[in-house]
Amino acid sequence: MRMSTALYRTNQLDEAFDYLNAIDTKDENLLKAVEQQRAVFEGKEVQDPID
Asked: Which of 13, 15, 28, 50 has the fewest Cβ atoms surrounding its Cβ within 10 A?
């Protein structure tokens, strides 16, 4: 997720989403974090944003 954040901050949104989409896990906490990160990238409000 750090790479997706770095790409997002350097305005490389397509690549940032590619990294998020590549995450394959059954860990509920990680899945929630990925969804929150995706929402931030899409400009949506989230209750517990990730830094």
From this structure: 28
Show Cβ contacts of residue 10 under 8 Å, excluding neighbours closer than 6 positions: none
Distance between CA atoms of residues 32 and 1, nearest Å? 12
pLDDT digits (tens, 9 = 90+) for 9-51: 999 999 999 999 999 999 999 999 999 999 999 998 766 555 5
Give me the residue spans of the domains in the chain: 2-41
C-alpha dist (Å) from residue 36 to 28, 30: 12, 10
The predicted model scores a pTM of 0.76
